[in-house]
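Collaborator request log, item 7. Partner lab (contact: R.S.) asked for a structural prediction of MFS transporter to inform their binding assays.
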Amino acid sequence: MDRILLDPRAWGLMLAATLTIMSNATITPSLPGLQAEFADNPLAATLTRLLITAPSLLVAIIAPFAGALTDRLGRRRPLLIGLIVYALAGTAGLYLNSIEAILASRLVLGLGVATIMVAQAALIGDYFQGPERGRLLGYQMAATNVGGLIFVTAAGEMAAIDPRLPFAIYALAIVFFPFIWRVLPEPAPAATGHDNAIPEAEPEPGWQFTVAVMSVAAGLTFVIFYAVPTQLPYHLQGLGMPDPQKAGYVMGSMMFAAAIMSVVSGWIRPWLGRIGTPVSGYLTLAMGFSAVASGDTLGVEMIGTALIGAGLGLCMPTFITTALNVTPARHRGLVSGAVTSAIFLGQFLSPLVTQPLVERLGYAGAFGAGAAGFVVLAVILTLMLMRQAPPRPTRIS
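Returned to partner:
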């Protein structure tokens, strides 16, 4: 066993990670039921889809500034406050009486998600160094997707009973709170500067352009990708699979594949290279979207979403890793915030982009358009990154 997994701090950080990136999608199986519950609202179709992506708007706005909060207050206090906000805002959908009020609570949930993400990411940098830090990031991304797998599958079962019931899953933040409080101490002040003693390689020429490409690519990827949690339950309904459990199984298949690929991607990235890794991910995403568009059985839909999860598992670590590798050390916090903001902005914008496509092309047509979009992104990303000089060797950190 990797000795890093014997460190309780690693498990505390991974538990915190399970609450973050895929937290928006936890209530995906509830969307058709919630839309039916608020059917008298003429905006119900759009507002129910925004319930998935509303937290992303707050994360996109706050992420570039959240690092300053953790520098001022320390890492531990914002993390613990974020867990409380997450639990209170996340469970509010159990009792709020209007779709607008639930949407407002989802925006507050984004505040908790942003605080948790930034604080736990900073703690990884403070607690671990070198290869250990890189391995933990892989485990963390896998934990995020495993958490999503468990939460969304459970949400499917709960939504079959009552579409409000999946909001109770957010109370897990309170369950995790005592363990996280106990195993994640505030780092010593010197811990945040331990890398200063390690000579840093010079930043890559034109690093700003590479960071911009990675940020834009990350944002556009999530605009298309988030059609899965926001539109797939309705697509399954149209295929004669209205059961919320089936939406949970299909989403779970995606998250399971993403969890595996998130770990594997660290091993295959050196072989595929800076361009080959995200392009392979985009082509895998395109195959997955094509399968979802053309499939008419639960098995085919699960295979399609598994391909989507695997493709995202290749792309997502590459966006962040490439941006950080080319950036001077003094700007890494800002760059990390920029990529994070782009990812969550893409999530928020997704239903605003994909819903008109659904209305014009139908669900199958919209997923087919998403497949074509990923092929176009693969071509554009290849051409843009080929403009840059071959990357210099970088120290793994």
